[in-house]
Give the backbone structure.
Amino acid sequence: MARALINVPPKAKRGEVIEIKTLISHTMETGFRPDNTGKAIPRDIITDFVCKYNGQEIFRAELFPAIAANPFLSFFTVATESGTLSFEWTGDNGFSATESVNISVE
Amino acid sequence: MTRQDELLPRTRRSFLVEAAAIAGAAGVGLPLGSKPAAATPASMRAAIRKIVGEAPLNRGKIKIDVPALIENGNAVPFTVSCESPMTESDHVKAIHLFTEKNPQPNVISVQLGPRAGRASVSTRIRLADTQKVVAIAQMSDGSFWSDDAEVVVTLAACLEES
């Protein structure tokens, strides 16, 4: 299981725009880099990232090899109601990671 | 004697020319063997056309925020933001990012909605060379807006062990 870091303000006012920061450990091997023998190292990247707010999708990203190792993504959302933000990363070689955080909205 | 003097430099010169030619050929051959096909401005335009289609590409609204000079192309902090009220009727649907000289033109494609509140995304990207990066925003009304930025990279990504 890859290690993921999520930064979401634990409390927010209703209607406030909050920033969500995510970071996950992953090599993001591009598939273009040669190894010692000159053969290209096979691609191994995270291809998709989805963020859901109480089950409803609010953000989706398709990643390509040009994203740096340990993909960092920061984006915004409107704090509408208390609940859970769930994050899901999927990628090559069956890679999958999920994480969720709670947020309370006043 | 004079004849030999004349001959000697000539043979040495021809030897040097040949040596240079061999070295040149090897120099050309090496990157061809180890470097994968690189994206060109043309392939970037093709990738952009695939997203945009026949719609006109306007300049403005979207803004790239990236340092102009990068020491390490392996992790370039990159922020792209777009002016939009982000309401149900007028919001940014998607943001796409392209590079000119990376092995692949695509970098990231992001889908947003009115619930994003603010159309702004930050990430860290790889840049294989000094090049132009292009960001494109797709609005809910179907229009496309773009911005580009020149980035100078001193240590390229993709080639060295990181």
Observations:
- The radius of gyration of chain B is 24 Å.
- Residues 77 and 124 of chain B are 5 Å apart (CA to CA).
